[in-house]
Amino acid sequence: MPSLSPSRRQFLSSTGMLLLIASAPGARAAEHSGSLPWKPFAALPPTTLPGGRWYVFSPEEARTVEAIVDRLIPADELSIGGREAGCAGFIDRQLAGSYGSSERLYTQGPFAAGLPTQGYQGSAAPTRRYREGLDALNKHTRANFGGKAFFDLGAAEQDQVLKDFETGKVDYKPAAGFFNLVLQNTMEGFFADPIYGGNKDMAGWKFIGFPGARYDYRDYITAHNQPFPLPPLSIAGRPEWKTGDK
To answer: How close are the terminal C-alpha atoms of the chain, in Å?
Structure first.
């Protein structure tokens, strides 16, 4: 029989080599015997800040934000509230980074009134918007509720104040925009990876059944309409993954 042509011989030999490599120990992710085929934080790791302190908010600002997030996401029989979930701490840490200063955004003029779907159209960075908005909020409550700050009001009064800010019924022109900013950041803090300071104990993920940052679902992709049997997983991994000084 005629010998194989060089091109066909090369193709068969290269295919055989690929099969050999694929069958080698450790080549198949499903059979890695507990060792991960990647290292956490190998590239572009999230910038994390230690908890237990405020980086941007003053004590009064922090108490105000904690009160706001607890009314936007109140605790009930299904889940913890926004304050316990760490939403205020999440916002504070985000403001301490590039988000708070808008350093990755173009903030020069000219400015024009945008559509509601286009979001904020202005030069003020989120940190400034928070400082001005929280100051306006507490000035409004002190002027209308016997000198009380927002965090000293009852739940019903707090809800009414937030509704008035949402609909722009207060003497502060950016009130609705400020309300939407806090609402957006609160939702982000409740559902973002816990490594960023919110979503304590992955309560937000457990609430909606999100499995978290798992990299391999091959054993479950055919299990349609069935609850995922494993607990959610953070970017930070599991405590048992950390050894030594890591």
So the answer is: 62
pLDDT for the residue 19: 46
Domain interval for residue 125: 59-104+119-208
This prediction has a pTM of 0.78
Number of domains in the chain: 1
pLDDT digits (tens, 9 = 90+) for 99-154: 999 988 888 888 888 787 888 888 899 999 999 999 999 999 999 999 999 999 99
The answer to whether position 27 is within a domain reads no
pLDDT tens, residue by residue, 36-66: 666 655 666 667 788 789 999 999 999 999 9
